[in-house]
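thought: user wants a sequence for this fold. calling inverse folding tool.
action: design(structure=
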């Protein structure tokens, strides 16, 4: 609804989520990323003002001048911990003329060729894509595949394919080592139609009875609809890993980790390489500052198809689920070697993260605790691994401290 109103109808840009199923209030509390966050920042940093009903029943206006502490806390301090957000005012930006992307899937014929492919890709990424234009992701597969699903903003239909041409040419020049299992390509199209649902081959329209005509989701997100997760983890990878000899360590870690599980690198969820004002705005939110030093968020996750209560389907294979969960832990451990103490994105993270305070909020955690005590002294709003939850039993009903 937000994209339809702001972009399709008004011709402006607003920072919402990448997946169209993501709401607004939870996204702002998460920090929150869209496909173009490397250019426009997080959803939290786009918040100008909100109305929040706090634990004592008051409806407070929060902004940079009025209740600035609560304003800061709801910008990335985690959903369900501060009050009920009932109204928001978000910053909008001029809409670039074009959005676009690059796509394809490359399979290497050997482990050695795959390492070379990764090394070449990160050379290419560091010199051509590590900037505010490019976001979204690549997937590094256990089967020696590199799947590209990247997006760009502010590049015209000539520039986007031109940027990728040397990398694609390098891949095609070595057919014994690399094959494109999905066509390789890049393009840009008018930004105003990016979130069109009808007639957009990248979107699936919500055809359920009563669904609004402008509702739908990206085809690429279909696997997430109702998914049953077996495990999940994420790490912010520092941009220093792109520099000099560090780049080889990054490649080695990604190769080693991908032996256990596919690793997704979400470049739009790390703000290193973003404009200075975007970095400054993100540093003025509760999210861990590690976000601004990371070139990408690595996500390692797996699951199976939709599993709703009451739905007729085969039972969950618990042994396979546990094997998957362990494999995710092992892949994460390989990346942790090159990113020790890495931060993690609160809303796409490991439910069991033992150091969640530090991982989600870093040095901001003590300040968040102080604000929590001020606005919710009796702990009305407690969620799993949310600010202040360490003082409560796991079900959130009994105060421990
Ligand atoms: C399929 C899927 C795709 C995703 N894609 C992205 C993505 O592209 N980018 C990204 O950054 N994140 C993504 N996420 C994570 C997502 O940002 C968070 O789940 C976010 O919280 C969703 O916002 P929501 O408004 O839908 O919140 P909900 O999921 O409804 O709620 C999340 C939390 O926020 C609280 N909350 C909700 N509304 C309010 C309110 N009005 N006031 C106070 N607290 C509230 C809830 O109590 C809950 O604790 C995705 C998650 C899923 C499951």
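)
observation: tool returned 401 residues.
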């Amino acid at each position: 609804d937000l994209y339809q109103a702001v972009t399709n109808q008004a011709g402006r840009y607003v920072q919402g989520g990448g997946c169209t199923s993501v709401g607004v209030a939870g996204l702002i509390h998460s920090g929150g990323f869209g496909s173009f966050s490397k250019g426009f920042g997080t959803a939290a940093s786009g918040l100008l003002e909100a109305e929040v009903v706090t634990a004592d029943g008051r409806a407070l206006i929060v902004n940079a001048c009025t209740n600035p502490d609560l304003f800061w806390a709801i910008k990335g301090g985690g959903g369900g911990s501060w009050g009920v957000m009932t109204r928001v005012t978000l910053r909008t930006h001029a809409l670039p003329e074009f959005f676009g992307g690059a796509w394809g899937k490359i399979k290497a014929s050997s482990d050695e060729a795959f390492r070379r492919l990764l090394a070449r890709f990160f050379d290419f990424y560091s010199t051509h894509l590590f900037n505010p234009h490019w976001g979204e992701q690549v997937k590094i597969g256990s089967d020696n595949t590199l799947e590209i699903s990247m997006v760009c903003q502010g590049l015209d239909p000539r520039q986007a394919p031109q940027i990728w041409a040397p990398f694609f040419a390098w891949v095609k020049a070595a057919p014994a080592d690399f094959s494109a299992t999905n066509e390789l390509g890049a393009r840009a199209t008018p930004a105003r139609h990016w979130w069109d649902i009808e007639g957009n081959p990248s979107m699936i329209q919500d055809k359920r009875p009563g669904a609004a005509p402008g509702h739908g989701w990206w085809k690429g997100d279909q696997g997430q609809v109702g998914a049953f997760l077996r495990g999940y983890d994420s790490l912010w990878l520092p941009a220093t890993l792109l520099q000099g000899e560090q780049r080889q360590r990054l490649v080695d870690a990604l190769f080693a980790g991908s032996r256990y599980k596919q690793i997704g690198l979400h470049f739009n969820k790390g703000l290193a390489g973003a404009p200075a004002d975007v970095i400054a705005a993100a540093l003025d939110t509760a999210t861990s500052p590690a976000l601004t030093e990371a070139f990408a968020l690595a996500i390692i996750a797996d699951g199976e198809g939709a599993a709703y209560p009451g739905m007729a389907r085969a039972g969950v294979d618990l042994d396979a689920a546990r094997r998957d969960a362990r494999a995710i832990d092992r892949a994460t451990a390989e990346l942790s070697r090159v990113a020790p103490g890495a931060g993690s994105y609160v809303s796409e993270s490991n439910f069991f993260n033992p150091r969640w305070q530090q991982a989600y909020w870093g040095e901001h955690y003590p300040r968040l605790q102080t604000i929590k005590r001020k606005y919710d002294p009796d702990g009305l709003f407690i969620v799993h691994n949310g600010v202040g939850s360490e003082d409560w039993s796991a079900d959130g009903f009994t105060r421990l401290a």
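thought: summarizing for user.
answer: Here is the designed sequence. The first strand starts at residue 12 and ends at 14.
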